[in-house]
Each structure stands twice: as structure tokens, then as C-alpha cells.
Amino acid sequence: xxxxxxxxxxxxxxxxxxxxxxxxxxxxxxxxxxxxxxxxxxxxxxxxxxxxxxxxxxxxxxxxxxxxxxxxxxxxxxxxxxxxxxxxxxxxxxxxxxxxxxxxxxxxxxxxxxxxxxxxxxxxxxxxxxxxxxxxxxxxxxxxxxxxxxxxxxxxxxxxxxxxxxxxxxxxxxxxxxxxxxxxxxxxxxxxxxxxxxxxxxxxxxxxxxxxxxxxxxxxxxxxxxxxxxxxxxxxxxxxxxxxxxxxxxxxxxxxxxxxxxxxxxxxxxxxxxxxxxxx
Length: 280
Known about the structure:
- The protein is mostly beta strands and 280 residues long.
- Helix content is 3%, strand content 44%.
- It has a single domain, classed as Sandwich (Jelly Rolls), CATH 2.60.120.
- Catalyzes the isomerization of 5-dehydro-4-deoxy-D-glucuronate to 3-deoxy-D-glycero-2,5-hexodiulosonate.
């Protein structure tokens, strides 16, 4: 089963008077991982497609052609994949490889078939995917978290000690415009990216997961720096972050998240920092 919903773009003025439910309907994706299903969201923010592929008894393949005006899914797109579930497999144009938890893959444009499967349907793989338009074909690259030297940042005093693993990044592999990575907060830390920032030249999508308990929640901060709003995010839910919005979060315990970005450039540090006294 495959489903894809479309989310449209908004200006900061549009959301000024949104209710909680309206804000959640437009920016929060509540269900990504359903055993035996593909759940995708197409956002008109830089035309990113993201979502969950959760194979159970049978292998799954994303089939999108007419919806994108192409003959096959990756004819004019590049794809990033990170597995956050049980062990599985990915088969790329007939070449099959194992994918344990925290394994990732960059898959270049013009790849015709990407098939996902789980080793054990009772403990299915959960492939989080992010896909954006591409102008050039770059080599497919498997990326394991074990191969990445993380950026260690933050400190316990400010509750934001964390490791940032850059999967799809110029230091690791080539891509047209997709960047993708995995951030893990240390026990006792709850904040990510505070002080916050925007980057007008690219949008971002987050999926939050690996919560410490069933009662853990993340408060995702969004909006213009002087008109902030928030979304309460449960485990394995995703948030669309437009280029004009801050994107920061604080949890009731530690957690992990995957970030994916696309836009004008692939410079990770291309950020417009927001001073704490500018936030409202």
C-alpha cells in the first residue's frame, strides 16, 4: 500500500492566526511508519518528498511516475535513506545490500528501481526517505553511522549536548542539493539548536524518534523569530520547516531526529543566527 499527500506552501502571514489544529494540519505529519505500507508527503517547499517505507511480509517499492510527470520515480530526483528500525535490505537496480539500524544510503538520479524489505516482519525495518529534484547523476553511496565522525556540540549546562552525524553532506558524498543527517541527544539533554536560526535559502524537514519513554514529547518551535509558535510532536512524527521559520526543539527527555534539507546550496553552515533577545 502506498499513500502520498500534498502539503502546500505558506507565508509567515498565513499562519499568524492559525489555531493549534490548523498549524498541526499544515506542518505536522503524524503517521509515517505503518507495517506493510509506504506513507509519503509531497511538500511544495522546494518540492521535497519525505516519509516512511515499512516493509513487512513483502518488499516495497516507491512507484511515482504520473504524479511527478516522469516515467519513473528517480528519473529527475535524488534520494536519501536512513533505517531507524529493525534490520532490512535495500535493492538498487538489482543490487541487494543489508541495512541495519542507522545505516543510510544516497541514491542518485536515473536509478530505476529501489526495493525495500525487512529481515524479520515482526521487527520491520523503518526506512525514512527524503527525495528532492536533481540536475545531475552522482554515484550511489552506502553510509553507515559507524563510518562518520560526529560533530560533538553543546554542553550539559545548557541541556543541549548532542552528536550530529552528517550522512549526505559534501564531506561524505556528492549530491545535487539534498543534505541529510542524524542527531542524537545525550541523556540529560533536551534542547536542539538553541539559540535558533533560519536559512532563507533552503527548507528542512525533521522526523523525531527514539523517545526515552511513551510519555516523552518534543516541543518543536517554529515561526518567524518575533512570532514563534510550537507543535507538540510524538514519537516517529515529522515536521515541515519552511525557509523563513526557526526550527528548534526541546523534549521532556532526550531523543533523536533526522534532518533533511534542500534549496539553493549545500553549505551546512549557511545559517542566519537569531539572538535570544530577538525571540518572542
